[in-house]
């Protein structure tokens, strides 16, 4: 079982292990390589086969939970010591502190929405963007120009909401925890951070920036906190069934082939430190 730690708690060896495994997955030429994860996120950004699997729907949280586990497992093939860390943006709020250090995710892009200049992912020679919504082959960031980092009290206001989600089960849902986390309803934790990092992170191909996975790990951790408070049982997930376009608790999350119900109790696979 894995323990997911804060990016601020990693040792230098743990940071270099993660960077090395990400680069090995990027260099893998076939199968579920890094670019497969980018392409899958782009493909599932909108409706697939009549279902909103990944975004603007109740299955936003379970879909990304499985997506992160699939990536984590793919990284462990190269280095079994790797566990995904989380970026707690309520405490690590600087553009040059963790995770944006030169030995880890690197820093900001140049001049507004330009290429990242420092760290292991700077420039197309170190980290080539192959699958993208835009033409740049170098990773871009535009930190602080849009969005904002949520505070710990923003997170607290979300965790106390007892209802998982409400109709119409989308970006206009006016209650429930899920849309407050995803971004359609204040405080809108998830979307604000995508926009605050900017560049590729503000596009449908956002997983081109490896910080995507550290951000989503923290989103998963917020859901985990909510589950620890309100329960891991299948009846905590809503809707229970029979809603068009929505992945019900006993339906399968594509392309992963696992049900929502099977994702709910993660404690046998990993926990958060
Ligand atoms: Cu996503
Ligand atoms: Cu996201």
Can you describe what's shown?
- Strand 2 and strand 3 form a beta hairpin.
- The protein is built from eight helices and four strands.
- It has one domain: di-copper center containing domain from catechol oxidase (Orthogonal Bundle).
- The model has no long low-confidence stretch (mean pLDDT 97).
- It has helices at 12-27, 34-43, 60-78, 152-159, 177-182, 189-197, 211-230, 260-264, and strands at 2-4, 252-253, 258-259, 270-272.
- The protein is mainly α.
- The strands form two sheets. A two-stranded parallel sheet has the order 1-4. A two-stranded antiparallel ribbon has the order 2-3.
- It binds copper (I) ion (2 copies).
User: Main sheet?
Assistant: 2 strands, parallel
The CATH architecture is Orthogonal Bundle
Structural class by helix and strand composition: mainly alpha
User: Uncertain spans, ≥5 residues at pLDDT below 50?
Assistant: none
Compute the number of helices: 8
CA(first)-CA(last) distance:
12 Å
Question: Helices and strands, in N-to-C order?
Answer: EHHHHHHHEEHE
Instruction: Determine the CATH topology.
Output: di-copper center containing domain from catechol oxidase
| CATH class term | Mainly Alpha
């Amino acid at each position: 079982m894995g323990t997911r730690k804060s990016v601020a708690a990693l040792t230098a060896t743990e940071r270099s292990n993660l960077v090395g495994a990400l680069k090995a997955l990027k260099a893998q030429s076939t199968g579920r390589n890094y670019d497969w994860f980018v392409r899958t996120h782009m493909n599932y950004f909108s409706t697939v086969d009549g279902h909103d699997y990944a975004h603007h729907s109740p299955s936003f949280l379970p879909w990304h939970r499985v997506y992160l586990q699939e990536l984590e497992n793919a990284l462990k093939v190269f280095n079994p010591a790797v566990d995904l860390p989380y970026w707690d943006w309520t405490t690590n709020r600087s553009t040059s502190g963790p995770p944006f250090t030169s030995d880890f995710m690197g820093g900001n892009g140049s001049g507004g929405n330009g290429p990242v200049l420092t760290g292991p992912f700077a420039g197309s020679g170190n980290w080539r963007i192959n699958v993208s919504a835009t033409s740049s082959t170098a990773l871009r960031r535009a930190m602080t120009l849009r969005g904002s980092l949520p505070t710990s009290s923003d997170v607290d206001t979300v965790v106390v909401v007892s209802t998982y989600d409400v109709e119409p089960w989308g970006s206009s849902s006016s209650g429930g925890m899920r849309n407050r986390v995803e971004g359609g309803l204040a405080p809108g934790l998830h979307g604000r951070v995508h926009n605050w990092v900017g560049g590729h992170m503000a596009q449908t191909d956002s997983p081109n920036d490896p910080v995507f996975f550290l951000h989503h790990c923290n989103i998963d951790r917020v859901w985990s906190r909510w589950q620890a408070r309100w329960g891991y049982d299948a009846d905590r997930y809503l809707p229970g069934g029979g809603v068009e376009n929505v992945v019900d608790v006993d339906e399968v999350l594509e392309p992963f082939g696992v049900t929502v119900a099977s994702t709910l109790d993660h404690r046998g696979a990993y926990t958060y430190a």
